[in-house]
Amino acid sequence: MSEITIRKRSLEDAVVTQRKFFKKTAKGKIIKVIRERYLRDDIGCGILHCRECSATSSPPPCLPPDGALDHQQFPTGHFVLPDTNVFLSQMDLMESHLFRTPIVLLQTVLEEVRHRSLPLYNRLKALVKMEDKQTWVFYNEFRSETAIVRNEGETPNDRNDRGIRKATAWYNTHLSMTRPPIRGKQQKLLPVVVLLTDDVANRQNAEKEGMPSVSIRQYVEGMKDASQLADLLSAERDESIEATVASRRPQLYPDYLPNATVLTGIKAGHLHQGHYNANEFNYLEGSVSVPAFAKPVLLVGRENMNRAVHGDIVAVEVFNKTDWKAPADEVIDQEVALKNDDVEDSDEEGEPLGLVAEEQRILREEESARQAAERQPTGRVVGIVKRNWRAYVCHIDRTSLTSSSKTSISQQTVFATPVSRLLPRIRMRTRQAPSLLGQKILVTIDRWDSASRYPEGHFVRALGRVESKEAEQESLLLEFDVPYRPFGKAILDCLPPEGEQWTVPLKGDDSPEWRDREDLRDLTICSIDPPGCQDIDDALHARKLLNGNIEAGVHIADVSHFVSPENPMDTEAASRGTTVYLVDKRIDMLPALLGTNLCSLRPYVERLAFSVIWELSPEAEIVNVRFTKSVIKSKSAFTYEEAQLRKDDPNLHDELSEGIRLLNHIAIKLKAGRIAAGALNLASPEVKIHMESAESSDPIDVEQKQLHETNSLVEEFMLLANISVARKIQETFPQTAVLRRHMPPPPENFERLQDILRKRKGLALDVSSSGALAASLDKCIDPSEPAFNTLVRIMATRCMLSAEYFCSGSVSPDTFKHYGLASPIYTHFTSPIRRYADILAHRQLAAAIGHSTLHPTLHSKQHVERVLSVVNRRHRMAQMAGRASVEFYVGLAVKARGEKTARVVEEALVIRTFRNGLNVFVSSLGIEGLIRFKRDIDFDAENYSVTVDDVRIAVFDKVTVRIEVEQDKNTQRGKVKMTLTSPVDSSALQ
Amino acid sequence: MATVSLSKAEVAYIKTSLEATPPLRSDGRGLYDYRTIALETGVAPLANGSAHLKFGQASEQATEGTEVIAAARLEVEDVESGEGVNGGRISCTVSCSPSAYPHSSAAAIEDIQHDYTALLHEVISHPSLRPSNLSILRDLKSWLLNLDILVLSDAGNIYDALFVAAQAALWDTKVPRTRTVEYSAATSKARVALGGSGDMDVDSVEQSGFNVRDVKTAADFELEDYWDEGEPLRGGDAWPVCVTLNLYPPLYYLDATSTEEVATPSRLLVMYSFPADQPPRLQGMRLLGPSEIGLPLIKTLTQTAQTYATDLSCALRAKLKDEDLRRTEKARQRFASVR
Q1: CA of B163 to nearest chain A CA: how many angstroms apart?
Q2: CA A685, A690, A691, A693 torsion: positive or negative?
Q3: What is the rounded CA–CA span in Å between residue A324 and residue B11?
């Protein structure tokens, strides 16, 4: 054993060795923190074959001895040592695979980045681990030669800059010291370590001290792939230019308040904090939901929206009540309204006056039309709490290219139009404009100056041609932030080494798999799933007991047996949160080996399961419930349809068919019980895409999904299992149980729908409770229009809040209720292959029945809260991605159908009226569409109707529409376009 | 304090020696000599200011001298809730280590502590001495300065030691710089008032006298520089020193050892403050002991005490400045040379 010596410093050295700082706590107390710093001499430089450092350093050095040799300015080889600002503003450049120069990353820089921006810090950490990069983290604050002490009166920034320069100087001396000239040989020229910084003062100081330093732009210009890399540079300009430009251009937006002021205002309740939501119909309007008001705070006009981008957390100031406004009834499309905005113009010449006037006219016009009755809190954005900018999928706006430069490869400024209607156009500079036309590209916003109408961004990478499946698919995943990289080696290493050959071992006392497991291999268990399902995570059985009661069991794949807490696979699954289903692709949460094989409860093979077994009375009341880990062997895997046929076939009397019948019998009673308790039967448009063949992914048609009785059978048992498990884990772990709830919606959410129904159909909607709502929804029937009821249900669903996972100790027990299911408590337990929350529930249940001990992290409320907030977000995103994918394929299908029959005409129901358009829902395709009228029409907001050519069209009216998919000329964005064919043909009105 | 019990003979012996010409003291000092004083500041890194003081500890025996440690800690207080007061406040506490008074019971030590605390608190936290930079946000937040002194051992003249240590710790105290952050709804415009708490009155200047409405402002503060210790506590030159005159009227002597204290019937404590550019100020006075002394005598005694206090104060200032230097520049130099 090596001897440990603790070299305690004398108090005398404290000033130098201790790092002192103050911290203000959330409660407003000031705490003094002291960190002791021990300096050492054995911190390695990270360069391979270094005489002095190699032996001592760990991890092993990774920088090549001569650095990079391909830069024009540094023929003798060089390493770069970037300053903090490089990572803060040019992360995309540093991450690019074209940027191959070995990087020396200083501890000072790493810490400063962490202090300034946590997301960037995480990206930086990932960059250090990237395999195609050579990055060495040098702990300069701990190496005795490079550690520095803050001078009297020095700002932290200056101190850090000095530290960075000192480290650069040390590296260069170190290189010359370790490679002394050898007699008789010609002295090889030494590589240099170059300080990379955009801070002019730092560069000047470096030059004074005689060390090589260079700005990023200069550096990139000397690189091999200069033109491609230059595009990745963010729009940060040189300070000198910026000053003059800013002074010349008029300020378009009010300045933000300083951050601390904003926080104070929020704390005192004068300002309100919330997520900014852009309005997808009107680019000049947005809203912010804040806890202080029941209705969201409305932001009208550019000045009041003040550079907020969808998803940002902003601070708003609410105007006096007299200035409150109602939301607009008009569709205002950015592309149409701003068609003539010139990129270069708005960039340099200030704002074209016509444009401003036009926008103001729109607002004024709208203003007069706003209804006084529907006023809601109105305000303006005064500060940004947190930007949530990410990379956005965009197209290049063709018109923003000047005709002469359509082919030129000189740098030019263009507009990138994001695919999402919620985002503003982004101005960016690129040299590759002509080649990027007609492509989907990824663009990041860098900044948005108060003098600039549009945010400025830079190109990240191209995804591929518009409408190519790969590009569309990837853009969808990026747009919804779905992690889709293949699983890494560390994760795959967590899988059982047997791989595909893994089987349940023979039963025996010594096998760990069989410990505390019940042998249910003889039970007649089957699974019922949608056709083509590969990840079967649930199976069922039922049989009559001798006492007349019924035993029913739900068997869920025992995923937690394979996924141990806190290993790389578990961490990855936690961050993915859920499996994402697109029409033509599934992005797994767990490696496919588990999902589709080892955990999938395939028929005829033994599988590990977690079983919930009830004893139910013939009236479906629970007599007894028990939970056990088990081994099962499914007897069959049915599709919903097969199971239905089997159940309905009176000639079949085998055990399986009887089981299904028994299950169905109970399910009907369970459902009746639920409905009686006030459960809602909600609807969302679900359609099925028909593919031409299994191999090609060309959709040929769309039809609405068929629902069988057996769908409901499986659903009822899953609900029952989830509720039983929720009770059990909440009982055992009242502080950290993973549960799911659905908060009752505030009654105001329904006001509009209630008003429409009353005025249009004379129907009343009782929203006092979920039961009352369910009953009144049942009464919303129009005998002439069967789709009407579904439509109302869809609209009611949109008025509700979304369900969420939560940690039972974090909220008060009276808010546990699941509104939609009318259950006092609920969790997710039945799909551990595709949902991470279920894995947590499995672990908690296993601990609750004493099968295993609970991992310490599941005892920590903070940890559970953190994991669940990620899962909640991923879950939401996955749903949106799925829907967007369906929409894309519906578009393709419509196009395909259109090519065959020349025109696609469908029936549609009007769901919303605007002063210049209609929003319709095509139930056969499950899509919504917007019909715009160019000509003036009479709009009656009170009665939700418009009058076109003396024909009155109101909400819930049936119309027929022609559906086309047309490509936007500018952006190549394919969009569904609808025109009215009856009762009036609107094509003339467009 | 009465930790040592002496026989009548011993008391008489001490008295006669002191009254002899030339006066004789057991350790060979003159009547008006102090024992050696050792002082070090910045001994407690987590405190905002601290000092370690020893009276007369030239020899190695730990029990020989009077030894105290003083530490000042700043704490943010809410003015609104009635906890703090505008302008900040100082709270002094003296605690005694049981080893300082090995012959006293726990209850007796508590009494002693209480006596010390009361005297120190009364003098130090007097409004005339309040530093001007203890306020953070008017009507909202202020600093509470907790001055804690621990008596490690008492070999006489504890009062002088307490005040010297208190002054050193307060001298060493740095107040973190704060910045006012304000959002005022009435004008829809937020102002950020820069600077420390001393500049707070700037805000009231900005408000017009015609504005009679109650303008609601929301304000909080933030740290200007989380690395910086802050600015020194103001009013550092006004902290008082205490001079204890041990009385055998008309004879008196300074810096009594514990045995001498027992033999002396009464003591006069005089606290003087020497604010810059102002005449010396008497901050407090106390007579300890059973005997009475007349007013004329007190007058002359305070006069003499002032001269000794001036000397003590000058010496202390010089030492404190030297300490500051030792802990900053010299330490850096040493650090640089060691590497």
Answers
A1: 24
A2: positive
A3: 90
Q: Please give the class, per CATH, of domain B8-177+224-338.
A: alpha beta
- The answer to whether A861 and A562 are in contact (CB under 8 A) is no
Q: What is the CA radius of gyration of chain A?
A: 32
pTM of structure: 0.67
How close does chain A come to B297, measured CA to CA in Å? 47
Nearest CA in chain A to B73: A32
CB atoms A263 and B176 under 8 Å? no
**Per-domain residue ranges of chain B:** 8-177+224-338, 178-223
Q: Nearest chain A Cα to B191, which residue?
A: A261
In B, which residues are within 8 Å of A22 by CB distance?
Answer: 176, 223, 226-228
Q: Does B224 touch chain A (CB under 8 A)?
A: no
Minimal CA–CA distance to A272: which of A361, A181, A377, A357?
A377
Render pLDDT for A278-306 as a digit per residue (tens, 0 to 9).
Answer: 887 788 888 888 888 878 888 888 888 88
Chain B residues within 8 A of A257 when measuring between CB atoms: 183, 190
* More confidently predicted of B16 and A250: B16
Q: Which of chain B's residues have a Cβ under 8 Å away from the Cβ of A262?
A: 183
User: Is residue A162 classed as helix, strand or coil in its secondary structure?
Assistant: helix
ipTM above 0.95, yes or no: no
- Nearest by CB: B183 against A12, A149, A271: A271
A373, with CB counted inside 10 A (0-12, 13-18, 19+), is exposed
Tell whether domain A903-989 is in CATH 2.120.10.30. no
Q: To the nearest 10°, report the CA torsion of A786, A789, A793, A795.
A: 90
Asked if A32 is an interface residue toward chain B (Cβ–Cβ < 8 A), one would say: yes
In CATH, the number for domain A36-233 is 3.40.50.1010
CA distance B48 to B256: 32
Domains A36-233 and A243-347+354-465 share a fold: no
Is the predicted pLDDT of residue A701 greater than 70, yes or no? no
Given CB atoms, is B325 within the 8 Å cutoff of chain A? no
Res. B196 pLDDT band, cuts 50 70 90:
very low
pLDDT at residue B188 is higher than 60 = no
Give the start-to-end residue ranges of the domains of chain A. Answer: 36-233, 243-347+354-465, 489-738+821-878, 745-800, 903-989
Report pLDDT for A666.
92
Residue partners of A804: CB distance under 8 A and separation at least 6: A740, A741, A742, A743, A872
Could you tell me the two tokens for B320?
């404190």
Residue B74 and residue A34: Cβ atoms within 8 Å?
Answer: no
CB–CB of B328 and A15 under 8 A?
Answer: yes
How many inter-chain contacts (A to B, CB under 8 Å) are there? 101
What is the per-residue pLDDT across A927-982, written as a single tens digit (0 to 9) for each?
A: 888 887 776 677 887 778 888 777 888 888 888 888 887 766 555 556 777 888 87
Residue A194: which residues within 8 A CB-CB, separation 6 or more?
A: A74, A78, A79, A80, A81, A168, A212, A213, A214, A219
CA distance B143 to chain A (A): 10
- Report CB contact under 8 Å: B183, A258: no
Beta strands in A387-438 (DSSP E): 391-396, 412-418, 426-430
The rounded distance, in Å, linking the Cα atoms of A576 and A874 is 7
Report the range of poorest mean pLDDT among A428-437, A514-523, A578-587, A757-766: A428-437
- Annotate A470-482 with b (16+ C-beta within 10 A) or e (fewer): ebbbbbbbbbbeb
